[in-house]
Amino acid sequence: MAGRLVASFLRRLAPTVSVRADLELDAGDHRVMVLFGPSGSGKTTILRCLAGLDRPQEGFIRFGEEVWFDRAARINRSPQQRRLAYVAQDYGLFPHLTVEGNIRFGMDAGSHTRDRAETILRTVHLEGMSQRLPTQLSGGERQRVALARALARDPRLILLDEPLAALDLPLRDPMRLELRQFLRSIDVPSVVVTHDRVDALTLGDRMAVLSGGYIRQVGPIHEVFSRPFDLAVAASVGVETVVPGDIVDSGNGLVTVRVGASHLRVAQAAVMPRSVFACIRAEDVILETAPRGDVSARNQLTGRVTAIQPDGGVVRVTVDCGFSLSALITRPACDELQLTEGAMVTAVVKATAVHLIPREIP
Amino acid sequence: MDWSAIVLSLRLATATTLILLVVGLPLAGWLALSHRRGRWAVDALVALPLVLPPTVLGFYVLVALGPRSPVGHAYEAITGSRIVFSFQGLLAASVLYSLPFAVQPFAAAFAAVDRNLIEAAWCLGASRVRTFTRIVVPLARPGIVAGVVLSFAHTVGEFGVVLMVGGNLPGSTRTVSISIYDDVQALDYARAGRTAALLLVFSFVVLAMTYRLQRHSGRAWPAGS
Q1: Disulfide check for A167: which of A171, A209, A298, A337 has CB 3.0–4.6 Å away?
Q2: Residue A161 pLDDT > 90, yes or no?
Q3: Closest-CA residue in chain A for B121?
Q4: Contacts of A151 in chain B (CB under 8 A)
Q5: Strands A32-36 and A190-194
Q6: Contact B223 A95 (CB under 8 A)
Q7: Which one of B124, B139, B221 has the shortest CB-CB distance to A105?
Q8: What is the DSSP secondary-structure string of B82-103?
Q9: Which residues does chain B have within 8 Å of residue A92's beta carbon, measured at their own beta carbons?
Q10: For the segment B90-136, what is each residue's pLDDT rounded down to a tens digit?
């Protein structure tokens, strides 16, 4: 039974500071929504309001047919009544209960809870650990127990607050992919709060960018990264082209990624799944008026200039070369190239400047 | 040695502590975890016996439970005996007098429980009561033990309230401290010394054992301390 989350609310944190959220989220193909923004932008506040731990001052939160919060109708359902999974940044495992005790805590009392706990532990690869205490687990194991415990209630909505922030760096890469696969394997909408670009790109289907207390832009994740709506969004996500692609060939430390109608050559030693995001920072793109001679290990992409936006001392140029590519060049360079909208240019990108982010387990 | 006084003191302390557990745990939970208006007033009320002279508290209890008060009158109508100068009256006074010694350590221990764990329990569907009994109380165990020990020891040692409310009836209201006082008044220093020494040893042993237990449990229950 998949529900649809519709929320529009405002929570005042201080007389002049407030957080406003307008969100819609479905199960289905775009079920993982990333709430992205710098620390202090209000991400956790939004998540806590959705969970019922904080109460907004205005607006409403609806889930499917249910009203979870409505200021005008004076409805405020408790976290217990919302039947959702909320995992805080530090996971909130009960230190005096074993792994099994933690997982069974959220289950409705009744028979078979022990068997069901075992089944859930298997799905998160923690079989045999049911009698351990949380202090006897690694960071990654603790995260899995927290997820398993949250899922044991068959939640209708999953809320994760910085799920990877408490992990050591070497653990983050594998856990990130594991979490992505996990969130995709259940047909429940999820909201994931993060301030990390790689976390956002790996985990999310859609992304909402928060800045200054409200959501500036919502859209498919690569679109938000590639086409920031305004300067505030661009500043928080970084000026970068992010496009979905498929790996069509690999060998000798070089892989070829098909992106739209173009192919990118990428220096990449690690084994990658077929489906990836290709990321190119705007300052790594060089623009030329005409293709140069064959330069190995470089990508030369010819396309039409679609936008020229001055931004301080630099100019942001968008080139349509089978996909929309952002380039950041200096003003003198822009004048020298005599760029105008509609002009043909060649964008040169080193194979080492393309960064791939895997989207599924290889 | 005044054995009947010693037995009476232990009986009184045990009963007081049990009542304080039943009354004090929910009261402390409310004080520590709820954010209702008017909490400060209850806080102050609970702490009152800490600053009031025991004789003042004893005086009010005496008046409140006396045969002419509604409470005392009702008690007499039901049981046929008076509540003042009886063990039951003494018990009521000593519960009131030891209330802060139980409630304050309980409340401090509850307030120290990680708020995230309480919210995690709510999000897992646990009611406030279940969250309290399954998460908050177990994690606050060291503080609860401290409150129990303090209120027990405090009841064994109380003097002023007992004198006001209990009087000095052997076997029903004559506690250890009163017995020692009587012996000193009667210049029987040897008897007073024996009772006092026993009380001293007993108090030390109880406290030492509690600290030892606390230290042991501290390892298994890291988040509660």
Answers
A1: A171
A2: yes
A3: A106
A4: none
A5: parallel
A6: yes
A7: B124
A8: -STTSHHHHHHHHHHHHHHHHH
A9: 114, 116-117, 119-120
A10: 899 999 999 999 999 999 999 999 999 999 999 999 999 999 999 99
**Which residue of B118, B123, B127, B139 is the best one to mutate when testing the A interface, meaning the one whose CB has the most A CBs within 10 A?**
B123
pLDDT at residue A258 greater than cutoff 60: yes
Domains in chain B (CATH in brackets) are 3-53+84-224 (1.10.3720.10)
Rounded CA-CA distance B22/B137 in Å is 13
Task: Evaluate if residue A312 carries a pLDDT over 80.
Answer: no
Residues of chain A whose beta carbon is less than 8 angstroms from a beta carbon of chain B are 51-53, 78-80, 83-86, 88, 90, 92-96, 105-106, 108, 135, 149-150, 153
Interchain CB distance below 8 Å, A79 and B138: no
The more confidently predicted of residues B57 and A113 is B57
Which residues constitute the domain of residue A38? 5-84+155-238
Distance from CA of B142 to the nearest CA of A (A): 13
Domain shared by A347 and A312, yes or no: yes
Same domain, A232 and A247: no
Q: Tell whether A262 and A167 lie within a shared domain.
A: no
- The answer on pLDDT for A110 being more than 80 is no
Kindly report the CATH number assigned to the domain that includes residue A309.
Answer: 2.40.50.100
Q: Is B99 exposed, middle or buried (0-12, 13-18, 19+ CB in 10 A)?
A: buried
Cβ separation of B121 and A86 shorter than 8 Å? no
Residue pLDDT, tens place only, B180-225: 888 999 999 999 999 889 888 888 888 888 878 777 654 444 333 3
Same domain, A269 and A169: no
| Residue A140: inside a domain | no
Regarding whether A181 and A80 lie in a shared domain, the answer is: yes
**In this predicted complex, what is the ipTM?**
0.79
Q: Which of A51, A90, A96 sits opposite B123 (nearest CB)?
A: A51
Q: Which residues of A touch B123 (CB under 8 A)?
A: 51-53, 79-80, 84-86, 150
Question: How many domains does chain A divide into?
Answer: 2
User: How close B161 gets to chain A, by Cα (Å)?
Assistant: 40
Q: What is the structure's pLDDT at A168? A: 80
A181 vs A124, A193, A323, B19, CA distance in Å?
Answer: 11, 17, 27, 54
Q: How close, in Å, is residue B223 to chain A by CA atoms?
A: 7
Shared domain for A265 and A221, answered yes or no, is no
Residue A101 domain flag: no
Domain end point (choices A174, A209, A238): A238
Q: Over the stretch B148-192, which tens digit does the pLDDT of each residue have?
A: 988 998 888 888 888 888 777 777 788 888 888 889 999 999 999
Same domain, A250 and A336: yes
CB contact under 8 A, B126 and A105: yes
Indicate whether A198 belongs to any domain. yes
Among residues A203, A238, A273, the one where a domain terminates is A238
In terms of domains, do A67 and A197 share one? yes
